[in-house]
Amino acid sequence: MKTSIPHDEAFKKLLYTFFAEFIALFFPELDKHLDHHNTRFLMQEQLVDIIGEERRTLDLLLETRYKATDAYILIHLEPQSYRQDDFHERMFIYFSRLFERHRKEHQLIIPIAIFTEPFLIHETNTLTMSIPGHSILNFQFLKVEICNHNWRDFIDSNNPVAAALLAKMGYNKGEEREIRFSFLRMMLGLRKRLDDARIALIMSIADLYFQPDRQQDESILLEIAQQFPEEGEHIMELMPAWKRWGYEEGLEEGIEKGIEKGMETARLKVAQKLLEKGFSLEEIGETIELPVEEVQKLVK
What we know:
The protein is an alpha/beta fold.
C-alpha cells in the first residue's frame, strides 16, 4: 500500500530537495543572480510577534550567495495552503524579525510565499503605510500562485518541481488523463538523471494531487510503451515504484508487450520508407536488424 505524506511536510521536502529547480521554474530572473553551489538551509527559527506573546516558526529559511555583491543573502520560503486575511502582515513581521536578527551578516533578505490552493489567487503581497505626500512603508514579497499557472506551459521543462506540481496547476475539466500522461512522460525523462529517492519524492507528492487510478495508469504506460519504444528500459525502471503501491506483476508483462509492439511499429515505418526509396529486402533487413523473411512479413 502507498504511504501517504502530509501535504505541508511533503511540500517542504520538495522545496528542500529541489530549491534551485523551484527558483529556476518560477523566478528565472532571480535564478540568474544566485550561486546555488553555496546554498544551505538554516535551522528553523522561532520569531516572537511584536506583542511578545505569540511564537511563530519559519517554514524554510536558507542562505545562499548573491552573485552581484558576492555576499550571502537570506531567502525565506513560506508555503500557504489556507486563506488568512492578515497573511501579508505576517510576512512583514517575519521579514522585520529576520532583518533585526541578521542585518549585520545579510544585507539582503528575499521573502517568497507559495500559495498552493485553487482559491488562493490574486493574494495580497504588499503592505503599505503613508501619510499625505510621504510614503512610510512599501513592503512587497515575491509570490507564486501555483494554480494560476497553466500546466501545458511546463511539460517540456524537464523540471522535477514542475512534474511534482503539474496536477496542482490550472487545467480544464476533462484534461485529467492528458495531464497524467504528460506527467509520466516527464518522469521518464527525469528517471534518466535522478536517483530513486528523489524520483520517489516527486511521485509521492504528485499523487497528493493526482489521486492516480490504477487502470488509467496501466493504459497510459502501455500507450507510452507503444509510442516511445526506445524508452522501454526507462519505463521498466519506473516499475518498482508501482509495485510498492500494490500494482500487479501483470503490468510489467503488459508493458513488455507494449514495448515489443511499439518497436515492431517503428520498424515497419522504417522498412516502408526504405522500400519506397528502392532499397532491397536484404538491405532493409540489414538496416533494421531483421532476417529477410521477417522484413517480407513487415512490408506485406
